[in-house]
Sequence to fold (47 residues):
Amino acid sequence: MAAQVQGKAQLVDVATALSSAQSSLETVMAVRDQVISAYQEIMRLQI
Fold:
């Protein structure tokens, strides 16, 4: 976004970068949720 404000990038490049960042964040959150779920399941096991 800073490059767009400085006039060094096109708006479409900024939109693409934001979309990519959002996808990456959603992926990381999904993996985190799976790890937490697996941890909780392990903690429920009777040993």
Notes: Residues 2-44 form one domain. The chain has one domain: 2-44. Helices lie at 2-5, 11-44. The two ends are 52 Å apart (CA to CA).
